[in-house]
Amino acid sequence: MKERLLLTLKENKGTWVSGEILRSGLSVSRSAVWKHMRKLKEEGYDLESSPNKGYLLRGVPDLLLPQEVRYGLVTKVFGNKGIIYASEVDSTNTLAKERALKGAAEGTLVIAEKQTRGRGRIGREWFSPPRESIYISTILRPSISPGEAPRITLLAAVAVAEALLAQTGLRVHIKWPNDVLVGDKKIAGILTEMSSEMDAVNFIILGVGINVNVPAFPEGLKEKATSVLLETGGRHSRKALAQQYLKRLEEYYEHFRKARFPIILKRWKELAHMLGRQVIVEFGGSRVAGQAQGIDSNGVLILRDRKGKTHRIFSGEVSYLGKSRRT
Ligand code: BTN
User: Fold this and answer.
1) 246: left (phi > 0), else alpha (psi -120 to 50), else beta?
2) Which of 46, 68, 137, 300 gives a 20 to 30 Å CA spacing to 294?
3) How many Cα atoms within 13 Å fall on the side-chain side of residue 8?
4) Is 252's C-beta closer than 6 angstroms to any atom of ligand 1?
5) Minimal CA–CA distance to 135: which of 195, 86, 204, 81?
6) What is the rounded radius of gyration, in angstroms, for the C-alpha atoms of the chain?
7) Is the CB of 137 under 6 A from ligand 1?
């Protein structure tokens, strides 16, 4: 109901809409209209009301509120089923996991404006200031074996990179397995967590963080991280970027579900510019240097070391050898 009222106000943005029109158009009582309007004001909408003229929407808050994410969204499932929204949360992945354990459906999103304990890969912290970035975790319930799960990370990296390309024009690229970079600085990261049995996945939490309007990063991070604002010099709509991401995520997840993973892999390779390059990969306490030869159909990195030995690496941290390049 609140969403339908908002829609009418948005269609008439900047002009007064009488309470009577709202009431009769949506077949609700005057007091119900009033209650929803109060809620919208509390959420940050710039709404004026007058006993004679009705209601006037002057401005929409720069927040990733569920109704804002849904407004203009072209997906069928992601963003159009459940959205759990929090102005502050420890980690959207943690909350999504709690909800998944309680049975939340595939496609449920957890979105927050701020994380107090945002988590990165390998136990790292994810810098999560309020209202400047995107923090979205998606609950997925694919019918796959645990070994296929890394494919989800690859498809998410493609969705994030393409969303950034489309929305900001930035020349982003992917660093295996799931970092999205501009030059050699990270602009987005993906944390995929899984609950599974030996042979089947129960659910996957796909957490994505995109640094959008972050004006500066703390010491120790500023050499490694960047944001859309820092790269383009201008603020960008988090909502539009989140919608682009969800649209592509749905598209690529559909390819994945319909056994069309080669389409995703091809796109991943185009965006990764990594194959053939000399790299060092650190994993599980060891490190191997060599040439990145390829990615197999499950996203495993194939690396040939200097002695010609081939390594299959499931997860790790890549650094490029030689001069880094702005792509
Ligand atoms: C990485 O590159 O290390 C992964 C970073 C993932 C960050 C996102 S932000 C939303 C979700 N919630 C978390 O706590 N982490 C992921």
Assistant:
1) alpha
2) 137
3) 21
4) no
5) 86
6) 22
7) yes
Helix (H, G, I), strand (E, B) or coil at 158: helix
Mutate to test the pocket of ligand 1, among 94, 95, 122, 126 (most ligand atoms within 8 A of CB): 126
Q: 114: Cβ below 6 Å to ligand 1?
A: no
Asked whether the predicted pLDDT for residue 324 surpasses 50, the reply is: no
The rounded percent of the chain whose pLDDT value lies above 70 is 98
Whether ligand 1 lies within 6 angstroms of the CB of 177 is answered as no
The residue whose CA is least distant from atom 11 of ligand 1 is: 207
- Cβ of 243 less than 6 Å from ligand 1: no
Length reported for the chain: 327
Per-residue pLDDT tens over the stretch 30-78: 889 999 999 999 999 999 999 999 999 999 999 999 999 999 999 999 9
Beta strand extents in 218-285 (DSSP E only): 278-283
Q: Say if residues 67 and 2 touch (Cβ distance below 8 Å).
A: yes
CA-angle at 275, arms to 272 and 278, nearest 5°: 115
Which ligand 1 atom lies nearest to the CA of residue 91?
14
pLDDT at 325 over 80: no
d(CA 280, CA 292): 9
